Amino acid sequence: MIDGISALNAASLASEMKKASESEATKPSLEAQNAGATFADFMNNLGTTFVDNMKDAEKKSTDGILGKASVREVVESVMTADQTLQTAMAFRDKIVSAYLEVIKMPI
Fold first, then answer.
1. What is the mean pLDDT of each run of 10 residues along the chain (107 residues)?
2. What is the DSSP letter of 87?
């Protein structure tokens, strides 16, 4: 059983490394594309990504209940949604903290 887990872990590690190398290969073109992007565009894209991740997790969960998706797919999408939610909450906390610091500044 441990051999099977080790093989699974090695396969997932290899796929993660492949994804990372593919994202590194496309990074310069994305940076060149976003060179003229504004902060508002960044925030809009970030919000859209958050919503898309949440919708995907909801759809995969429903598909899992109906037997159309494997447990692995459901878990992956829910974990991605959880990570997205944690990121959004951390981002919100930083914005609120910065706002409170600005309010405390003397005029």
1. 46 52 50 70 88 93 93 93 92 94 90
2. H
pLDDT score, position 13 = 46
The pLDDT assigned to 1 comes to 41
- Residue 76 CA to residue 48 CA, distance in Å, equals 19
Angle at which helices 71-104 and 39-66 pack, to 10 degrees? Answer: 150
Q: How many helical (H) and strand (E) elements, i.e. helices and strands, does the chain have?
A: 3, 0
* Rounded distance between C-alpha atoms, residue 48 and residue 41, angstroms: 10
Whether this model's pTM surpasses 0.70: no
Q: 63 CB contacts (<8 Å, ≥6 apart)? A: 69, 73, 74
Task: Give one word for 67, left, alpha or beta, with left for phi > 0 and alpha for psi -120 to 50.
Answer: left
